[in-house]
Amino acid sequence: MKKFNINDYRGKYAMHCKTEEEAKDFRRVMHKAGRKWIDHTLYTKVFNWSTYKEKTAYLFNEGRFGPFNTAENEGYTILNWSDFMQHEFTKADLRDGMVGIDRSDERYIFLCGKFRNADGEQYWGDDHNLNEDFTSNCREELDFMRICTSTAEVLEEWCDENNLTTIWQRPEVTVMTMDEIKEKLGITGELKIKEV
Question: In this model, does residue 162 exceed pLDDT 90?
Answer without folding.
Answer: yes
